[in-house]
TrEMBL record, chain B:
<feature type="transmembrane region" description="Helical">
    <location>
        <begin position="241"/>
        <end position="263"/>
    </location>
</feature>
<dbReference type="Pfam" id="PF12698">
    <property type="entry name" value="ABC2_membrane_3"/>
</dbReference>
<feature type="transmembrane region" description="Helical">
    <location>
        <begin position="186"/>
        <end position="205"/>
    </location>
</feature>
<dbReference type="InterPro" id="IPR013525">
    <property type="entry name" value="ABC2_TM"/>
</dbReference>
<feature type="transmembrane region" description="Helical">
    <location>
        <begin position="41"/>
        <end position="62"/>
    </location>
</feature>
<keyword id="KW-0812">Transmembrane</keyword>
<feature type="transmembrane region" description="Helical">
    <location>
        <begin position="74"/>
        <end position="97"/>
    </location>
</feature>
<keyword id="KW-1133">Transmembrane helix</keyword>
<keyword id="KW-0472">Membrane</keyword>
<dbReference type="InterPro" id="IPR052902">
    <property type="entry name" value="ABC-2_transporter"/>
</dbReference>
<feature type="transmembrane region" description="Helical">
    <location>
        <begin position="118"/>
        <end position="142"/>
    </location>
</feature>
<protein>
    <submittedName>
        <fullName>ABC transporter permease</fullName>
    </submittedName>
</protein>
<keyword id="KW-0046">Antibiotic resistance</keyword>
<feature type="transmembrane region" description="Helical">
    <location>
        <begin position="154"/>
        <end position="174"/>
    </location>
</feature>
<feature type="domain" description="ABC-2 type transporter transmembrane">
    <location>
        <begin position="80"/>
        <end position="258"/>
    </location>
</feature>
<dbReference type="InterPro" id="IPR000412">
    <property type="entry name" value="ABC_2_transport"/>
</dbReference>
Length: 236, 269
């Protein structure tokens, strides 16, 4: 992210947008653009006095001044406080509703999960997975883990296949399974434990999520390079 | 007029309208920035006043009558040189560096605006200030020296218009030599010294030894000074005037070529 995102620091918000509108064919009104990003009551504030999040929203107002059909957003919420981030998400949803096709890159998985119709995970410069959210998640198993009480050993447990799961690992008294049918595995495991009067502490059943898929892709890479995710959001 | 001609005509009319709209938008924004920097306002009022005071003092040091010069045209020509350097070249160099540092040039380039429009738009306020100052100075100097109306005003207009373009070109080229806004003060020094002192701006060339005059005759700002002076006195052969205009055009092309060759749109890393 650019520290100063290409704005004249001494112009006000409205002046900046007026300049940009004058340099753009078929712009919408400056007031409409300001309202859409929630900066209308900050229109007379100098750019240098805006918070980082407000500057990014001004950025967004400039990018949408001509109501583009296709919009590229490069990490639009990076460095924003939670309030600014929510406001930006709201703006992006509105743009999507009005039929704008948006290609958005982000490091925040929840942002991708929430906004994207289609997403792609980039790893080491390559697209490692792509599709709709369910398509990507379905390629990755759910996980269930627990600790067995003292007095038992790992070999007291039946093979993971009996619970419809795969054995992932045991660390101390914690065992982790992976499964493509979390409900079945959880039911079988808990039924089995009750029949032995065994209390499973720290029980943790997690559905497959984008985070799981993302970590899975990162872990499976030979070089372990830092991953970057890119998701595409396509409106009808 | 064929359909194609008509279409081309309407397209170029639309393009002209777009360029005008873009220049207005960029020029207006730049003017707001100019006004917001308090030091600029001081310069606009201070420079003409300083020019007038300094000129009245220094011109009395030279025996202008003996050199065959009239005070009014000499003062106006000198003022043109000073205003072009201090109100256009110096601030515009700083403007280009500042807009580059703010990454504003980079952002503008991602949009629809052409490169020339961006550079010209940023120069518009400085150019209008040059014209305003010249009018102010003229309004004071002409009655003060009984200079009377110019005999050949078109030479003056050509000299000032080409002078503005040339100085804007030099400013764009110089901005490439300044890495940051702090370095602008250093980067401008060579031309700041060279241009006025070789053109008869600071002192009339006629008061210098002949060999020096012969060299300075061909320097970039000399034809501007000559044209403004000659435009007032009317004391110039058309052929000689054309030669001076030709020289000024040549320097303007060189300045724009240098700008084209060296101008930087993004900060150096």
């Amino acid at each position: 992210m650019l520290q100063r995102s290409g704005l004249a620091q001494d112009l006000t918000v409205a002046e900046t947008l007026h300049m940009w509108a004058g340099c753009t064919s078929h712009p919408r009104s400056v007031d409409a653009a300001l309202t859409s990003v929630g900066l209308h009551d900050r229109k007379r504030v100098a750019v240098k006095n805006l918070s980082g999040g407000e500057q990014r929203r001004l950025d967004l107002a400039m990018a949408t001044i001509a109501e583009p059909e296709l919009l590229f957003l490069d990490e639009p919420t990076t460095g924003m406080d939670p309030e600014g981030r929510h406001a930006t998400w709201q703006i992006i949803r509105k743009l999507k509703e009005t039929g704008t096709t948006i290609v958005l890159t982000t490091h925040y998985l929840e942002e991708a999960e929430m906004l994207a119709d289609r997403l792609a995970i980039m790893h080491a410069g390559q697209i490692a997975a792509a599709g709709t959210l369910p398509e990507i998640i379905d390629q990755h198993p759910s996980r269930i883990s627990f600790e067995f009480p003292a007095g038992f050993v790992a070999s007291d447990f039946p093979p993971a296949e009996q619970f419809g799961a795969d054995w992932v690992h045991e660390r101390g008294r914690r065992i982790e399974f992976s499964t493509t049918n979390l409900q079945f595995t959880a039911t079988e495991l808990l039924t089995w434990a009750r029949s032995r009067n065994m209390t499973l502490t720290g029980l943790d059943a997690r559905s497959a999520s984008l985070e799981e898929a993302f970590l899975h892709i990162a872990e499976n890479s030979a070089d372990g390079a830092v991953s970057e995710s890119l998701e595409q959001e396509v409106s009808a | 007029m064929s359909d194609v001609d008509r279409r081309n005509a309407s397209e170029s009319a639309a393009a002209g309208g777009t360029a005008r709209r873009q220049l207005t938008a960029l020029g207006w924004a730049e003017l707001l920035l100019f006004v917001r920097a308090k030091s600029n306002l001081v310069n606009v009022l201070f420079i003409p006043a300083l020019v007038l005071v300094a000129l009245t003092v220094t011109m009395n040091l030279y025996d202008l009558d003996a050199l065959g010069l009239a005070l009014g045209p000499v003062m106006l020509a000198t003022a043109t040189g000073i205003v072009l350097v201090f109100s256009l070249y110096v601030p515009l160099t700083g403007t280009y560096v500042a807009r580059r540092e703010e990454l504003l040039l980079k952002r503008l380039r991602t949009g629809e605006v052409g490169d020339t429009t961006i550079l010209l738009g940023s120069a518009l306020p400085a150019i209008s200030i040059v014209i305003t100052q010249m009018l102010l100075i003229g309004a004071i100097v002409i009655p003060m020296t009984n200079a009377g109306p110019p005999a050949a005003p078109h030479y003056i207009i050509i000299g000032i218009v080409l002078g503005c373009i040339m100085m804007a070109g030099f400013a764009a080229a110089t901005s490439a030599a300044a890495r940051t806004s702090e370095n602008v003060q250093v980067a401008i020094v060579p031309l700041l010294v060279l241009l006025p002192s070789t053109s008869g701006t600071f002192f009339p060339l006629e008061a210098m030894p002949q060999p020096v005059q012969d060299v300075f005759h061909w320097m970039p700002m000399t034809p501007i000074i000559d044209l403004v002076r000659a435009g007032w006195t009317g004391d110039v052969e058309p052929a000689e005037a054309m030669l001076r205009i030709g020289l000024l055009v040549l320097w303007t092309v060189i300045a724009l070529g240098a700008a084209h060759r060296w101008f930087r749109w993004e900060p150096r890393v």
